[in-house]
Amino acid sequence: MKVIVTVKQVPDTSGKVAVNPDGTLDRASMQTIINPDDMNAVEAALALKDELGCKVVAFTMGPPPAEGMLRELMAMGVDEGVLITAREFGGSDTYATSQIIAAGIDTYGVDEDDVILAGRQAIDGDTAQVGPQIAEKLHLPQVTYAGEIKKEGNTFIVKRMLEDGYMTVKVNTPCMITCIKELNQPRYLSVGGAFEAYSKPLVTMTYETLKDHPLIDATTIGLKGSPTNILTSFTPPQKGAGMMLEGAGKETTDKLAGILAAKHII
Amino acid sequence: MAFNSADTAAFKNVWVFCEQRQGKMMPTTFELISEGRKLADELGVELCGILLGDNVDGIAKELGGYGADKVYVYNSPLLKDYTTDAYTKVITDAVEEIKPEILLFGASNIGRDLAPRCAARLHTGLCADCTHLDIDMPIYKNFLREASTLAEERIEKLGTVKINGQDHDVSRDIKMTRPAFGGHLMASIFCPRFRPAMATVRPGVMKKREFCADCAEKVEILHPAFELSASDIKTEVVETVKAAKKLVDLIGADFIVSVGRGISKDVEGGIKLAEELAEVLGGVVGSSRACVDAGWITADHQVGQTGKTVHPKVYVALGISGAIQHKAGMQDSECIIAVNKNENAPIFEVADYGIVGDLFKVVPELIESIKAAKAAQ
Ligand SMILES: Cc1cc2nc3c(=O)[nH]c(=O)nc-3n(C[C@H](O)[C@H](O)[C@H](O)COP(=O)(O)OP(=O)(O)OC[C@H]3O[C@@H](n4cnc5c(N)ncnc54)[C@H](O)[C@@H]3O)c2cc1C
Ligand SMILES: Cc1cc2nc3c(=O)[nH]c(=O)nc-3n(C[C@H](O)[C@H](O)[C@H](O)COP(=O)(O)OP(=O)(O)OC[C@H]3O[C@@H](n4cnc5c(N)ncnc54)[C@H](O)[C@@H]3O)c2cc1C
């Protein structure tokens, strides 16, 4: 058995986000981090490894510096990294991204007792589509929004969170499960692991590696193969400054209540 | 003939996936039907609902009241509980046969599980978690004039795009606008080469129209034949559990009083003050994620990017700093009131009225003032 985790390197959107004058994101000036939900997927994978001694392989598609992220994950306990990288893959929407990652995973090989874990959503594209679309391309069943995972033989019992409660879902391997923040508390990087990380195997898959896979075709990958196109991107205008009420006393709250009443808001 | 999503001319009409749970229609469905009506009118085509479940005919008519011309109903015991496999099969088979040009889903935990799977099977594009949809170019451009900082020349020029070397006129394409990068950036996406153009739409954003009883009577209910067997379904739903506590209805509320980490010095007292203020206003209590993460309040109260998107008449933010992920869920409220002890808190950038001060002092006074103002009316 092995656990495959898909991990994306993303710009850190929690701090200041720099936007170019033309409305595109100034990625160069931003820090990159491991996508937060993916850390929960990695933790779930490592917990399975602790329990069952299985192998954990992290897959990422991205520019070559994403290798650094894979080494970081290896320092945490991931056994092997796969970097999918090629100019031809750039500009992919979720359809094309899933097509490529699925081809990479399929080339690596999925066994009967394997599980693929993904994050629910990446904080840059924010679509939550790549997990389910990889599952579709690999013809695997999926369970999304996993808030709890238990393994019994080759069956996973997943608590799938809903807005108004949850479902308990049973699924057999091989399958795809997407992970949310509530699933677990990701562990920290260990210093000991940092040295070991560089002796672990890291595979690079390029266009050459994958070009003969049935999922890879000029019409299904990259910008040209993406069914969606961006018509325009923009930043919303800042709302005009509101009225700051002077002082924090009763006169101020009276004044505010008076304005609200006069405007028939209350 | 095999299904060909690239034969765009063969596709017609706007479809909405009508999500129900335990036989009850999800409120988002009515928002989507209302929005779908607008799109269908702009295109001059029909609006159709697609409803899956077990014995759900009884809830189909109501969709007509919000604008549906037709509802395709698929009943089967195998569709009683939502499963990705069964729902994907029935929907994609229906799409391949009847060929709608647009297909909308609510961006719920179910819609966001189902729609990507369907899009991947149909070989078409899916725009995630949209907050605005347009067909008509002049209306779309006016939207950009209001909602963006783009220069007029750039907006004026929009209309024809080079797609793989060929000019493509976008005037009949659905333009799907959505936030990305945690709300820092908006993008309008379209799907020029394949049909249906698909989108998931954020709950609480589209306005539900006035219910029309006559239209509900007139809606056409159809039961197309379909194939589905137990062996199509690879997952087993063991149980579905509704949260025991009644969840707060943030999306339907006219008044929301939200608390943030600013209540930390007396969590219980702070929540109690918010409840009192909400009661005086006739509203409910919301929260920032910080309070949810700290375990002070349950997750159904969370407003923001990973919580609910709300647009009440009045949104009161108590001790909330105004992080972009929080603003993403509340900045379209009609009136925003912020109380924060830090005069530089970013929440004041979106507030209509701001009071700099300790919420534990300001809120009791505000409650008294509002009571008095209401009594005087
Ligand atoms: C402003 C903007 C808006 C966009 N809107 C859309 C849209 O509406 N529809 C659309 O189809 N595309 C859209 N895209 C393109 C989309 O962001 C990219 O295809 C992106 O590569 C994958 O989508 P995501 O970031 O949303 O990932 P998600 O689908 O949110 O990611 C879910 C999980 O999939 C895995 N995963 C995702 N990407 C990778 C990767 N590169 N390597 C390894 N694992 C990965 C991770 O486990 C991740 O947690 C948009 C892009 C931009 C810049
Ligand atoms: C991927 C992602 C998704 C996220 N999604 C969400 C989301 O959906 N919703 C959300 O809210 N956040 C979300 N966040 C978190 C967000 O970035 C902020 O961390 C969070 O909103 C901060 O909450 P806060 O304003 O309550 O706390 P803080 O930022 O700590 O602010 C507390 C404020 O209270 C003020 N204060 C303190 N004491 C008092 C007092 N006695 N009286 C008055 N004012 C006082 C302080 O001046 C300060 O401004 C997300 C983050 C990430 C990375």
From TrEMBL, chain A:
Gene3D superfamilies: HUPs. GO terms for molecular function: electron transfer activity. This is Electron transfer flavoprotein small subunit. The gene is etfB1. The lineage of its organism: Bacteria, Bacillati, Bacillota, Clostridia, Eubacteriales. It comes from the Bacteria. Residues 22-214 form the Electron transfer flavoprotein alpha/beta-subunit N-terminal domain. InterPro entries: AcrB, ETF_a/b_N, ETF_b, ETF_beta_N, Rossmann-like_a/b/a_fold.
Automatic annotation (TrEMBL), chain B:
Keywords: FAD, Flavoprotein. SUPFAM superfamilies: Adenine nucleotide alpha hydrolases-like, DHS-like NAD/FAD-binding domain. The keyword Flavoprotein applies. GO terms for biological process: fatty acid beta-oxidation using acyl-CoA dehydrogenase. The keyword Flavoprotein applies. InterPro entries: DHS-like_NAD/FAD-binding_dom, ETF_a/b_N, ETF_a/FixB, ETF_alpha_N, ETF_asu_C, ETF_beta, Rossmann-like_a/b/a_fold. Its cofactor is FAD. Residues 14-237 form the Electron transfer flavoprotein alpha/beta-subunit N-terminal domain. One of its GO terms (molecular function) is flavin adenine dinucleotide binding. Binds 1 FAD per dimer. FAD binds at residues 261, 288-289, 302-306, 319-326, 340. Belongs to the ETF alpha-subunit/FixB family. NCBIfam families: AcrlCoAredClosAcrA. This is Electron transfer flavoprotein subunit alpha.
